[in-house]
Amino acid sequence: MPRLSLQLCCLLLIATCVLSGCLFKGKEQQTDIDWSKKDSLSYQMFILDTTDASCQAKQDMCPRIRLEYPVFNTTDKKLDSFLQANILPQLLLYPDSNFNKISDYIHHFFSSYRQFQEDIQYGGPSAGWEREKIVRVAGKKGLLFSLEHYEYMYEGGAHPNSYTSFHTYHLNNLSEVRIEDYLPLQDTGLLRIGEAYFRSANHVKPNETLEDVGYFIFGDSEDFEDSKDYGKFRFNDNFAITADGIRFFYNTYEIGPYVVGAPEFTLPYKVIEPFLKKPLP
Question: Are 141 and 154 within 8 A, CB to CB?
Fold first, then answer.
């Protein structure tokens, strides 16, 4: 997918949008950059926050959508194109639909809301839908670089839902990497260390079991409660490379009920070094 420039983004959408400042400023005049020696990439954030004007003329609460993502402008245009190709398709994902343009995605969202209103003949302040899709730079170390994809949605019901996924890339190979490429997640010693950091980050007391506080009680099947792994710590593959270490994130309902939220923790690099299958690039 071709890199979407800031100018094209602005032409696609006539809406309220704000272009924020540049983060991770690098030596942009340099033609050959060794990304393994600097933990930064040059980019700008594109932010669009808008609602349906036709709805606002009729009621107070209307559908709102917010899109936010980095547009890279490093001197390595091949790298920029690769990263952008792994961002925009995620932003355009929508249930049972496939879009090529942001404007089509927003139009469909507003149209779906209007159809919903007509079908149930219901309006008013509590009827507004909300959707946020945000891609952030999660971190970089050496040649590994992570993006965070966050999605928030409310389309009726008892509460909104959100989901966060991380994607980590090798900047030389221009490929996505798996955590299993570097760490043996089933290693008993690493599991023991991981549980200790999980407990500390999520305030689980030494005399409490993970099961007692609602963690690691959900699984992939209905009879997970009878599994030998019930209530036992486990790693997942939702990870990010950060300045401090490898960050693991569990989404709502992944390992426990809604009330326990979305727990996370970070393993420092000095802790995982003895377990690495190969050095981090």
Answer: no
139's CB contacts (< 8 A; 6+ apart) are 145, 146, 240, 241, 242, 243, 247
Which parts of the chain register pLDDT below 70? 1-37, 96, 120-127, 157-158, 219-226
Strand partners, 164: 150
CA dihedral angle for residue 22, residue 27, residue 31, residue 36, rounded to 10 degrees: -90
Architecture of domain 181-275: Alpha-Beta Complex (3.90)
The residue type of 231 is: G
Structure token digits, residue 177:
């990497």
In the chain, where does DSSP find H-type helix? 6-12, 53-56, 77-85, 88-91, 102-120, 188-201, 269-272
pLDDT, position 197 = 98
CATH of the domain spanning 6-177: 3.30.565.40
